[in-house]
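Sharing a chain and its predicted structure for anyone who wants a worked example. Both blocks are below, sequence first, C-alpha cells second.
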Amino acid sequence: MRRLPLVLLLLLTAAEVRADYKDSYRKGIEALDRKRWDDVVRYMREAAADNPTEGERIKLYGLRFETYLPHFYLGAAYVNLGNCDSAVKSFETSRSQGAIRNHPKWPELLDGLKSCEGSAPKPPSPTPTPRSGPDPAAVAQAVQAADGAVSAADEAGRGVTSLAADALLSPIWSREPTLGRAESEARDSLASARAKAEAGRRTSDLALLSEARDLAGRARDRFDGVRQAAERRREALRREQAATPVPAPTTTLPKPADGAPTTPVDLVAGAQAYFGGHYEESIRLLDRAIGLKGRVGTQATLLRAAARYALFRAGGERDAALRRQATDDVAASRRSDPSLAPDSLAFSPQFLDFFRSN
C-alpha cells in the first residue's frame, strides 16, 4: 500500500486530542458561532475549571486565534439564556482579571452588565453631604477630556488588535519589537490612563484626570505607530508572498497505477497551497489532480471544495457560481467515498457545516 504525505492522511483521519481547557474552549467558541448557548455554558465552565485565568491567545484552527476569555463568554451565554445573576457574576470575574479591558469584547461586557442592571435590587442612594473641593464644572470638563482621550486610544487599540490577528502578521507579531512589544507598551499606558481616569472621577482629582488624558494620548500615538509599522510589514510580506511560488514537495511520488499523466505531486502542492491560504493557486493545482483514482482522487476533490468555499466566503458570499462549484465538489467526494468525514482539526467549522448540509 502506497503511503500518502501525512498532511493528506490528516484530512480523513480524526486525531485523538487530549481533552483540556484549550479543547473545551475551542468547542465553546464553535457552539458560540452556532448560538448554542447551553453548550457554550457547558464548555466554557469546563475550560474555566481547568484554567480560570483569562488573556492567553488560543489557536482554534488553521490561522484563527482567539483570546482566552471563558468568563466573558459564560456571561454572554447566560445573558442569552435570561440568567442575569450568573451573567453578572461571570462578567465581574472577567472584568476583575483585566484581560478583557484591552479586548474588542470590552464594550460587549459593559453592555451585558447594563442589560442586567434591572435584575438586581439597587442599593439605597447615600445621603449627599456637602464638602469643599474643586469646581464641579472644571471636574466635569476634565472627566470629559480624559474619557475622550481614553476612547480615542481604545479605538486605535482595536485597529491594532485586528492587525495582530491578520494571517500574515500573526506568526511574526510577538517576535518584532515594532509590533508585539510596542503594542504591549501602548496597552500598559492605556491601562494606566484608564485607572487614573477612574480614580480621578471618583475623587474629583483634577491632577489625576489630567494625567489620564496625557497617558491616553501617548497610548493612542503608540497604537498609531504600531498600526503604521504593521501595515508596512504586511505589505512587504504580501510582496514577498506574490514573488515566491508555492514550494513544490520534496517527496517523489509514483504516478497512478492507471498511467494517468497527473501525479500525486499536484495533490500535495494543492494541499500546501490551500493550508497556506493560496486558494486560487490550490484550485489550479487540484484541477490537475482531480483525475486521480481512488482515495487520492477523493482527497483532491474534497480539498478543491474547501478552497472554493473559502474563496466564496472571502468574497463576501456573493459569487453563487463559486458556491455551486464547491457544492458539486462536495457531492462528487461523497459519491467517491460515502464514508468521507473531513477532519475538524484541518477544516473550519463553517466548511464542516457546509459539507454536512450538502
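Comments welcome. The longest helix spans residues 206-243.
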